[in-house]
Structure formats: structure tokens, C-alpha cells
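Q: What would this chain look like folded?
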Amino acid sequence: MNDNISGFRDHIKCLNCGVLEDIDLIDAKAPPCHPDPDNADFEHMECIACYGPGWETNLTAEQMQTKSIAPHLKPLYLAYFNKVATA
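A: My prediction, written as C-alpha cells:
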């Protein structure tokens, strides 16, 4: 995805807070009022801070730190990776 306004490539805005972040670090979520979240159209894209429990990525800790363009989210990625690594 291109964001021609910002000049960044492969980045998307969180639909909740508006932060611009790498597409691999934004997760799709069912709309909050959807009656059947397991069968919802997952088009609501949220960052790790807004998503809450259930946010996922298949990136390594180093990849998350390198790809992120939102410095305030980097500690959340490290915490996520530490939690997944110890699970």
C-alpha cells in the first residue's frame, strides 16, 4: 500500500488512533459491535496500542524494531515479543 500524502511505502494508518505504521505491524480486527466476530470482515486495522489482547505478528523482535516508524510503539513490540517468547 502506498501513502502518497506522507511519502511512506507499505505503511497504513491505524483506524483507531491514526498512527502511521508498517503494514506488518498493523493487525486486522473485527468491528467492535459485530454480532459474530469470528465471521466478521476484518477490515478494521489497528496498531498494537489500540488493538488490545489478540494483536499478532509473525515478525521477530529485531524485524519489529527495524520496520516500525512509530517510536512510541517500539516498547510495546518488545513487550509483545518477550511475552510470546516465554509462552
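DSSP finds three helices and six strands in the chain.
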